[in-house]
Please model this.
Amino acid sequence: MVNGDSGIPGLAGVRPLAAEELQAEMAQLAADFAPRRFAIFEVAADRLDASVFAWGLAWPDRVVICDDDGFRARRFATVDGALRASGQSDRLHLIWIDEAAGVRPQ
Model:
């Protein structure tokens, strides 16, 4: 590096970020672009109990769910599609994790 120059074509004169600045930038990007987290619960037929059926991540253009045992992951276009494909739709219930914890999506 010469005089703080990054050495990358097109970025002449741009200095690398300090460690704290880079950490803050990465934290903001993670917050801005993180997928929404959710859980799909299966409610017992007698409605006395429920258990986690799958965990999920939702981006604006896709959804990924992972079975509770962690061995199988599947991709869908929407959360509704994931629920329909999982069957037993009257016994499956979706809970948005961050909203349930009081964190509002950005």
Summary: The beta strands are 36-43, 50-59, 62-67, 73-76, 92-96. The mean pLDDT is 86. Residues 19-33 form the longest helix (15 residues). Residues 1-33 form one domain.
